[in-house]
User: Fold these one by one.
Assistant:
Number 1:
Amino acid sequence: MLRSACYTFLILLIAAPLLAQTESGDADSKASASAAAPGQSYPTTDIGDVWRWARRRNADENEQATGRKFLVVAPTIGSRPTTGLTLGLNSNMAFFAGEPASTHISTMSGGFRVSQKHQILTGVRYSVFTRDDRWFVQGDNRFNWTSNNTYGLGTDALGIGAENLKYNYFRVAETTYRKMHRRMFLGGGLIVNVHEDVRPGENAALGWDRSAYVQYTDAHGFSRDGQTSSGANFAFLLDTRDSSINAQRGWYANAAVRTYFNGFLGGDSTWQEVFFDVRTYRPLTRDGRHRLAFWTQTDMVVGGFAPYFDLPATGSDGRSARGYGDGRYRGERMMYGEIEYRGTVVPSGLLGVVAFLNTTTIGSPETGTRLFDSWAPGGGFGFRVLLNKRSRTNLASDFGWGKNGSNGFYLGIQEAF
């Protein structure tokens, strides 16, 4: 797998300049964007600069203006236990809705993938700041026709006896924040998670009645055919990062209380969840070429009973727990932590590397396991190619490993966090 992944990455590195990359905005920002950062002796170079150099053209022949909008499109290739090999296309657009000095950069990303296991995976995410950060709108919407292996609860759940289930998954999560003071926001929104047409997957019919999903579902009176969780999200946000796409410094802290209601938009139960997400970024060198990123999450069901697929789980956000498949470990109480080294291998910042370590612990009153009794550690490394220097958007390739032989290869746009 490692050798084929390396070949794939090299091919994409060569092909990257052919991918769509458009920019528009103020011409006055061109000089400042291309100039070296404080403490850096070389101007930043992205793959577009390399492409123009190879064609012996300067920026003026290809760009009328730069600075306010940035669009990149790239193929998505991956391999993980949940999906097998996946192929698709991903795009990311970054823009400023106001003056960059007083407005965070906004980002919108979306794409689709098809997998070796006959899955269709699509989604759109966005984080949009209005002028002067008066409002902030965040969305996470997914539409998947997919399948997954189901396991018992807790980070000590064995892989033996896992049953594969097929289902359709639709998620709409929208939260609107209002700025309260400088980089602090308060907000609320709507979350709807629908898992429908749940059925035995390949070679799972004989173990359907014994699957962790069916046992949990029957114990709490849910329908085996599917469940829906619908409710409200109330959140506090602090964001002092210099970029939400590829931060070099600052803090991000999000605290949320989510309440789901039986009967609301088809919801099947009333239950509550608390969620905390904290990230910080620390430069190791003055020029910013080497830095550390830290990430911790806490996700807990604090009242009622959540449907099986809505329990906190590894990889449920699509970014955490590299090295494990989505939902490999699941339970009512989860804590997660990760540290990542990020560095550039050339002074211009065109090529970069990362190395990361993460760990998850899950407790479940259902099975009598407690937080910190067992762990699911993971780690790996990756490569970066700078697609757009103004939005700091990278083509990211990561290799991750976990316990009991779990592993994955991920290729896409933007950092994991």
Note: The two ends are 25 Å apart (CA to CA).
Number 2:
Amino acid sequence: MKIIHPSFEILHPVTQQEWIKEAKLIELAARNCYKSEDKITDDSYKTMIKMLIEKDHMAMIEFGNFVCRIITDRGITHELVRHRLASYAQESTRYCNYGKDKFGKEITVVAPSGVTNGSTNALSWETSCMTAEQQYFKMLEEGFSPQIARSVLPTCLKTEIIMKCNFRELLHIFKMRCSPAAHPDIRKTFLDIRQVCRGYLPEVFE
């Protein structure tokens, strides 16, 4: 059994130029409404986006697009996919057989918040995960398919999910998942994602 921590990779936009291109699409869409395309300059998107957000004209913000790969546990993805105005592609426990060589013949789990290395609670958590792994492999040996054997796998099983959404929905996700009321693990991940987004495009994400 392998234990990892959550991580993410922004797939699009990646470079500063790509972020600006998304911002300029927002500006172009907005100026199409006013037929003021002649006022577009290299950095006019900054004032345009600021004005759109101040006026709560958020439909235009939907023209910016975002794609991210998130490595986390399946409990977190159960919460994430509740954001319906997004597209998701997730690692499938129906078709992934963790008894195969490509997975190292082991399951991978994500250490949750509150589990401290070397503590009693860490031992209890690890023992539970190892028991689940043993029973999963036993079911595979007995001829069960991965989609049936997965029923004994823990919620903290590692998964990879690719999320695609527009900037407006991403702002909503940040509002919900960066809140102190959010689950601590999803909150940590999206606080980190938001920080990266702010660094590239503060006009939208500040």
Note: Strands lie at 2-4, 7-12, 65-73, 87-90, 108-110, 158-166.
Number 3:
Amino acid sequence: MQTMSPKVLVADDSLAVHQIFRNALSVGHFAKIVHAFDGVECLEALDQGMDIAFIDIHMPKMSGMDALWAARTAGNKTFVTLISGRSNQRCVELARKLDAYELLIKPFGKDEIDAIVKTYGRISAPMRVLLVDDSQSLLKIMRKVLAKSIFHLDIEAENEPGVALARCHAKPFDVVFLDVNMPGLDGIQTLSRIMRVRPQTKVVMMSGEHNAPRERQALDLGAAATMHKPFFPTEIDAILHQVFGLRSPKLATIGQIRNFEINIHGRTVAVQHTDTGHMYEYVWFRDPPYLRLQLVRENDATNIPAGTLTADVQKVAMLELENAGLLDGVHPD
């Protein structure tokens, strides 16, 4: 965890807002709180180097958005929360493009500020992660997905559960992502042995199928959470917030739009997620269940056994079919 006191910027033209932050951050955990009252002062403070910044979107001389955009363009990586008097889709999308962690809507109080500061402490501290899956191809993909997390992850991977267990014996990991279905020593058995040796380790069980009894069994044995493959960086972030008792940012869920490229070739719908590179191919039908997944691929040359389609992929694929008029009684060629 973070040991040094972070340097905090509060940029807002309201004296009342500055007082809220003074009260919230007065416990003595902060080496310095820098106050800015317009966008120019905000940009100057960001240039000086801040750990955390709370920036109002609307300020005189230069907006908070423009100040943050200028800082990001120059390579600034400050952990930023934007502040606004209201939430709208434009603010949300701009906040995401500028890599803001959260969008605080006025009025807010000490609890919201504390939650963000607590998250910064966990995110900024290196976290040792072990990925365990018997498929080398899936390990490669999952490494890429985890590498896009906002958390600072030091990732190791292992495709043999026995060797993974030996690694857990030899040194502690903060989080273990453990596949349920593996030959020999399966995920449930591996989980049980990890919990005996490293009960503080957060173990997240992964599976390509929905199996409620087995998921309950894993949770009863000490798993911190379960998730289904394939997954995305935002889902990894949500799980890590959950297992470490952190409040998930509203910005991660408000009007979330995922980026997909979709092509329809006869009865085949090809969907590629632009963040992870996952490629989904499935056949569509005019009658339910409409979409039947064929395979998931990392790229054109790699086939990976399909798991369960995520709701986001289903949603955008169905929307594309409707826009193309292919669900109105018209069969594909």
Note: The radius of gyration is 23 Å.
